Amino acid sequence: MPQFNEQTKAAPLLIDGIANTEPARVPRDVLFNGTTGRVPRPLGFPTQPGEDIKLTVYWEQPNKTEIFQRTYTSADSQPEFPFPITPQQMSVDGQAIIYYEWLADNPDNSPRRTLIIDHTLVPTLEEPDFPDRNLYGYLNCSSSPPIWEKIRVQIGPESVFEELDECVLEWQGFGTLNGAPPALTPLYEFRKILTRDEALNGFIMEIPFDPYVKPMMNNDSGRAQYTIIRNNVPIAKSKAEVVKIDRIIPGQDEPCGGFA
């Protein structure tokens, strides 16, 4: 990685919505909406026709990439020069370095800014529901629709939902009644893009029986939790909910839906 002269002439980079601290944590609204960086006008900005200067903005995480480049002339003079920082550029958790370079005759690099990117969500949305379980919290051989066909997961409306949001439902089966290990299935994901009506009124997602439910037979359970994603950035997460699963029929050798 190149080492930059600390005695740079370029002024520090400013970023809307992010504190001018080192390092600086990127707020959640900036992560999923994006923001604008602002580069102050340099002392050596062109003053005569025919002169130009090139601005390049670099992002390192850890690889160095150019996220903005433009050449300016004396006609473009202004106090600062904005450039976009998109949610996609901030989609990877960790530390990112951002800085810019003016280039006329000699390169002039700005101080490097460290941004802390963390999309970790604290569950704040209500847990999903299993509308077909009985009063004792079970899905069993008497459930409707039949458990050997599918499990329905109901997600109620939340004020944060918007049309075209993506709901990612996580599902995993366990060999206990309370969603605790041992796990009987991998952690599966089911995805859905919300319509306007679904964002306003809630919706149902379906989990097919095989292979997602079939491993659970007697005194087992399934655990569901969902995340809302907007512009490829997770913005909200639900609490988890557990449903008990019992596919044993008294007096029968084989569970309803068959053995796994």
TrEMBL record:
Recorded superkingdom: Bacteria
The name this protein goes by in its record: Uncharacterized protein
